[in-house]
Amino acid sequence: MVRASDGVGTADLLDEPLTKHLAPGTARALAALGPVTVGDLLRFYPRRYVDPGVVTPLADLKEGDRVMVVGEVKRASMRRTAAQGKTLFEVVIADAHDEMRMVFFANSSRALGYHHKVLQRGCRAWFSGVVHARRGAMELRHPKFEEMGDRDLDPRDTWPKPVYPASAAIDSGAVGKAVATVLGPLHPGEVDDPLPDDVRTARGLIPLVQALRQVHEPHCEADWRTARARLRFEEAFVLQAELVRRRAQAADHVATARPARAGGLLDAFDARLPFTLTDGQRQVGAELAHELGLATPMQRLLQGEVGSGKTVVALRAMLQVVDAGGQAALLAPTEVLAAQHLATLRTMLGDLAQAGELGAAEHATSVTLLTGSLSAAARRQVLADAAGGAAGIVVGTHALLGDQVQFADLGLVVVDEQHRFGVEQRDALRTKAATVPHTLVMTATPIPRTVAMTVFGDLETSTLREVPAGRSAVVTHAVHAERPAWMARTWQRVAEAARTGGRAYVVAPRIDATDEPEDLVAIDEETAETRPPLCSVLDVAAQLADEPALDGVGIGVLHGRITGEAKERAFADFASGRVPVLVATTVVEVGVDVPEATVMVVLDADRFGISQLHQLRGRVGRGTTPGLCLLVSPVLDDTPVVVDANLDTTDPERTVSPIPAVARLRALERTTDGFELARLDLEQRREGDVLGAAQSGTANSLRLLRVTRDEAVIIAARTQAQRILAADPALCAHPALAKAIADRLAQADDEFLDRA
Ligand code: ADP
Ligand code: MG
Predict the structure, then answer these.
(1) I need a surface site. Which of 131, 199, 431, 700 has the fewest CB within 10 A?
(2) Lowest-confidence range among 22-26, 415-419, 446-450?
(3) Which of 311, 316, 474 to mutate to test the pocket of ligand 1 (most atoms within 8 A of CB)?
């Protein structure tokens, strides 16, 4: 991995390689876990702490507690167990009042030789471990122990023990020793603190070196808690400083002004729009129109409810730029989405998108697609159209970021984000324009405010809250797949819709039994073994053909393996009502618009993510009849339980379903508010999935900060970052902060290059 400091002769202590301080084998084992430099290792925080805690009297033991006890060995015996031929070493200890059993198992008595030698009758020792109950008596199994003789407990014995991420090559204890080697000689103030002193003291936070000591070698719980609070704030602060600075820098650049032009493409498009824009669309549209007309680059995030009409808003902005003589690029995260965007834009534009073809409209432009899977010839054509300016709008995937892609005059970049592009990648397209292009980032579904601030903090935000008038409510029910009566009722509802002029979608996660879809929610091995196999489009279509309730009702299929023409026919038949039931994969998730559709059945709904289900549900209730969404799942039984406190939570008890899939389905039943669903989604998913690689990688990125939990910290950090940067935009007086930001960016670049 290339680091920011490579080639710098005077690299300071933090940039020194670990090979300089540790044995080669240790350094190699650590590198495999992540840390390469001294700085990396100091920031390689314990995952949790085991608290041997205070000594518990034997009478006070509770099952499940992690305890430390001190006692004298009364009896010790080694024997072979009858059942498995194992060796069992059993020790009974006593304190002043009570007795307790310690048990150790091994395959041979040799493995327990040390135990046997040390834990003899009369030996006084401490033991620590988790309390198990066996036949009413408490015992520890394989406790840690140490002989104490007559001495008192060493204070070190009671310090919390850090537990580090470890591997077969290096265990947690050895990681701790390596950390101690580099941490030991550090003096207070020797490491430059990215957090300015006044910010730190105003928040009542401890200095950096002290925090590093306390996080790695705490003497009590309060030590690591105050240390983590400080380090967490620092993470938030460095990130916000970076974003605030990016926003300020962007504002300093010059863009080409693309003011709206009367009588152009945009006007022609508006004139034939089959609906009136919502107030929100008009407002945001005016905002964008204004900013595109300025010589300062627009930097905007457009987020909104599913079905709120973001695409139209983005398309209108693109048309304004084309009218002004520029080009627009639309960057999508996957080929499927790129193809769908292309289809949507071409449909909405009609002959306005047929420049150079017979029957084109007067102001027509051309919309093209660039993905990695184009043939060489097609690719050459698209590149020529982009570079020559013939293509007004270019839709594409990552392929758009390639070096060979040039534009005649790129004026607007629209990024269909889906949380998959980092800040840096968004920049890659900017280098393709003579002046900095305007940028509009769209999210597919609403996102919570903390995510917006963490991932898109360099952008101004526009939000579409309302969905177009004429939409009807959608009622959602979770349906147990293994209750025949419920399934019969499900197909009845589909039949009722089909017989009364409506349409019904039936979505299955895969095409046939050989298909292994990639974008499903992962499940653990145990669930995978007990859960019935996934439904497939082809099986379900065959099954529905035999379903009595659906006798005489036309059933079509739609999935990714059907070729273009057949796909269009299947879809046209469904739209016209000739075939009112469509069994499909998630190809219907985005962009499919049939106002008569009133029923959405999603099979194996437990394997779909929240935003995906919310998108699918958005396909019904588009006309005047209320929609019905049935989420079918074999996993449904639901007993809310109290989930365990995690390390830093301030609110230790929450009652939610212990099964994430069930919690998702219940949430969808309960609400159609995309912002609320987004919050649950965020809580359930790994932080990295939400924030993208750039914000959740290894050193220098977010290790302690959790956007679900740390909203107050993020907001406070942003306020402080704004204050510092307003006074010192170039960070001349804050070199440590400037360096922390530079390191973060260098790392994000590495990660991007590694993946690209
Ligand atoms: P999303 O914000 O989820 O991306 P879309 O842009 O896909 O939403 O819009 C959803 C559907 O609503 C599209 O079929 C679009 O044509 C339609 N639509 C957009 N704006 C309006 C409006 N103002 N009135 C009626 N329909 C609209
Ligand atoms: Mg959309």
Answers:
(1) 431
(2) 415-419
(3) 311
Query: What's the CA-to-centroid distance between 275 and ligand 1, angstroms?
Result: 9
Q: Edge-to-edge, what's the strand order for the sheet holding 597-602?
A: 474-480, 627-633, 597-602, 503-507, 581-584, 555-558
How many Å apart are CA 366 and CA 354, to the nearest integer?
6
What distance in Å separates the CA atoms of residue 402 and residue 508, rounded to the nearest whole number? 35
Checking if the pLDDT of 648 tops 50, the result is no
How far CA 699 is from CA of 143, 181, 299, 745, 749, in Å, comes to: 34, 19, 28, 11, 13
Ligand 1 proximity of 523 Cβ (cutoff 6 Å):
no
Residue pair 49/163 in contact (Cβ under 8 Å)? The answer is yes
State the average pLDDT for the chain.
85
Distance CA 662, CA 678 (A): 16
Q: Which stretches within 34-123 are classed as H helix?
A: 38-42, 113-118
Q: What angle do CA 312, 338, 306 make, to 5 degrees?
A: 45
Record the pTM: 0.72
Rounded Cα distance between 619 and 505, Å, is: 9
Please report the atom of ligand 1 found closest to the CA of residue 615. 3
Identify the residue whose C-alpha is closest to ligand 1 atom 9.
309
Q: Does residue 428 contact residue 422 with C-beta atoms inside 8 Å?
A: no
Rounded Cα–Cα distance for residues 67 and 132 (Å)? 11
Question: Which ligand is located closest to the Cα atom of residue 615?
Answer: 1
- Tell me what pLDDT residue 206 has: 97
* Ligand 1 contact via 310 beta carbon (within 6 Å): yes
* C-alpha span between 411 and 415 (Å, rounded): 13
User: Which own/partner pairs from 559-568 qualify as long-range (CB within 8 Å, at least 24 positions apart)?
Assistant: 559/511, 559/584, 559/585, 559/587, 560/336, 560/511, 560/585, 560/587, 561/511
Measuring CA to CA, which residue among 462, 404, 421, 415 is closest to residue 437? 415
Relative to the alpha carbon of 593, which ligand is closest? 1
Rounded Cα distance between 610 and 669, Å, is: 11
pLDDT in tens, 353-387: 888 777 777 778 999 999 888 889 999 999 999 99
CA distance 26 to 178: 8
Residue in 74, 75, 76, 68 with CA at minimum distance from that of residue 126: 68
Q: How far apart are CA 297 and CA 326, in angstroms?
A: 14
What number of other Cβ atoms are within 10 A of residue 178's Cβ?
Answer: 23
Q: Pick the atom of ligand 1 nearest to 281's CA.
A: 23
- Label residue 332 by pLDDT band (50, 70, 90): confident
Instruction: Say if ligand 1 is within 6 A of residue 656 CB.
Output: no
Q: Is 445 in the pocket of ligand 1 (CB under 6 A)?
A: no
pLDDT digits 0-9 by tens, 649-706 = 333 334 456 678 888 999 999 998 888 888 888 777 766 555 655 554 444 467 888 8
For a ligand 1 pocket test, name from 312, 316, 593, 619 the mutation site with the most ligand atoms within 8 angstroms of its C-beta.
Answer: 312
Alpha-carbon distance values, 708 to 503, 554, 662, 681 (Å): 39, 46, 20, 10
345 phi, psi to nearest 5 deg: -60, -45
Residue with tokens 């995260």: 333
Residue 356's region, left for phi above 0, alpha for psi from -120 to 50, else beta, is: left
Q: Is the CB of 560 under 6 A from ligand 1?
A: no
The pLDDT tens digits for 588-636 are: 665 567 889 999 999 999 999 898 899 899 889 877 888 999 999 998 8
Tell whether ligand 1 has an atom less than 6 A from the beta carbon of residue 304.
Answer: yes
DSSP string covering 326-358: -EEEEE-SSHHHHHHHHHHHHHHHGGGGBTTST
**Ligand 1 midpoint to CA 606 (Å):** 27
Ligand 1 binding pocket includes 312 (Cβ within 6 Å): yes
For residue 630, give Cα distances in angstroms to 30, 471, 666: 49, 18, 12
Q: For the residues 417-446, what does the mean pLDDT come to?
A: 75
